[in-house]
């Protein structure tokens, strides 16, 4: 979810669900150790619970970055072993590390030794021709022996060459039964399923077999699917807020960020899908897209976009 789940997106999603665990974009150890740490690690208190997702393969570097994340208040440190892009492979992190389980175990052990918060792993069911269930079992066993108790499993294998990252999300078939089998065979581990989940109904069905479900692009493109998550998934006695309430509740965050010099467009780009599937959604998207980038754009742009959505919906109903 590079360039998608930045801190403004996470703050927006938190307005919709109070309980869902949110993840940062994958941040490389090099970016943290040698770059602008505030840029890569800053987050707002409203985002909790939030996990820092790291990419790297050096145990000492990962330990140092995990320690920095814990000091900054993250609730979890996650090691990404699922990204198959060429750039990631050149950096020797992501999905290619599934071929080096002993190194991953060393990395996980170093991270666990550095922090007092959970260290988790996100991975695939296999890579290239290393895609047997036995190989996946052995991989999980090795990492679990290093102390990891929670695995998020993307239910597709990754091809390290020949497919783009987008194709790797679509071409290899989803094999949910493999993730289910992992939970049966590793009952003491937390197994979270990822890949292709589009609705809460699908998530609820998977939760009959596994401990958790990660929703990625669907939550970005149609964020309102999370509106009932607190009630349906976490058994909270709360009614979902309307889309209008979500916009209004998010405005104080928008105002705070504008005061810090953040351009409105950097925030509203994550809000475009809020009304997807409803009459007037295009009017909402168009107004934000056309107005949020202008100099001096402020909360009034968001309120005007909301009014455009309401007007378009009323006209559709009248017709």
From TrEMBL:
This is tRNA-dihydrouridine(20/20a) synthase. FMN binds at residues 53, 122, 154, 194-196, 216-217. Its cofactor is FMN. Catalyzes the synthesis of 5,6-dihydrouridine (D), a modified base found in the D-loop of most tRNAs, via the reduction of the C5-C6 double bond in target uridines. Specifically modifies U20 and U20a in tRNAs. The record marks 80, 166, 169, 282, 285 as: Interacts with tRNA. The gene is dusA. The lineage of its organism: Bacteria, Pseudomonadati, Pseudomonadota, Alphaproteobacteria, Rhodospirillales. Keywords: Flavoprotein, FMN, NADP, Nucleotide-binding, Oxidoreductase, RNA-binding, tRNA processing, tRNA-binding. It catalyses: 5,6-dihydrouridine(20) in tRNA + NAD(+) = uridine(20) in tRNA + NADH + H(+); 5,6-dihydrouridine(20a) in tRNA + NAD(+) = uridine(20a) in tRNA + NADH + H(+); 5,6-dihydrouridine(20) in tRNA + NADP(+) = uridine(20) in tRNA + NADPH + H(+); 5,6-dihydrouridine(20a) in tRNA + NADP(+) = uridine(20a) in tRNA + NADPH + H(+). InterPro entries: Aldolase_TIM, DUS-like_FMN-bd, DUS_fam, DusA, tRNA_hU_synthase_CS. GO terms for molecular function: flavin adenine dinucleotide binding; FMN binding; tRNA binding; tRNA-dihydrouridine20 synthase activity. It comes from Pelagibius litoralis. NCBIfam families: PRK11815.1 (NF008774), yjbN (TIGR00742).
């Amino acid at each position: 979810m590079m360039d998608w789940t930045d801190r403004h997106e996470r703050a927006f999603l938190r307005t919709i669900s109070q309980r869902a665990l949110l993840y940062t974009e994958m941040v490389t150890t090099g970016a943290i150790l040698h770059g602008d740490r505030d840029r890569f690690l800053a987050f707002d208190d409203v985002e909790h619970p939030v996990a820092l997702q790291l990419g790297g393969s050096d145990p000492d570097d990962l330990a140092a970055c995990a320690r920095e994340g814990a000091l900054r208040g993250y609730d979890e440190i996650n090691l990404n072993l699922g990204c198959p892009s060429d750039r990631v492979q050149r950096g020797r992190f992501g999905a290619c590390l599934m071929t080096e389980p002993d190194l991953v175990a060393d990395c996980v052990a170093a991270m666990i030794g550095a922090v007092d918060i959970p260290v988790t792993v996100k991975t695939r069911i296999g890579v290239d021709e290393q895609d047997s269930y036995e190989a996946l079992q052995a991989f999980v066993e090795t990492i679990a022996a290093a102390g990891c108790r929670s695995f998020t499993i993307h239910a597709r294998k990754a091809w390290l060459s020949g497919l783009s990252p987008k194709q790797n999300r679509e071409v290899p078939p989803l094999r949910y039964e493999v993730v289910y089998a992992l939970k049966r065979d590793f009952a003491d581990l937390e197994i979270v399923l990822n890949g292709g989940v589009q609705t809460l109904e699908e998530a609820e069905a998977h939760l009959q077999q596994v401990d958790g479900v990660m929703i990625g692009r669907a939550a970005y493109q149609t964020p309102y699917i999370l509106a009932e998550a607190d009630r349906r998934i976490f058994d909270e006695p709360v009614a979902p807020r309307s889309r209008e309430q979500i916009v209004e509740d998010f405005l104080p965050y928008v105002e705070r960020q504008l005061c810090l010099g953040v351009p409105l467009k950097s925030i509203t780009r994550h809000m475009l899908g809020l009304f997807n599937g409803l009459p007037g959604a295009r009017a909402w998207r168009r107004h934000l897209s056309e107005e949020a980038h202008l100099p001096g754009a402020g909360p009034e742009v968001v309120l005007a976009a909301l009014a455009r959505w309401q007007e378009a919906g009323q006209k559709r109903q009248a017709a």
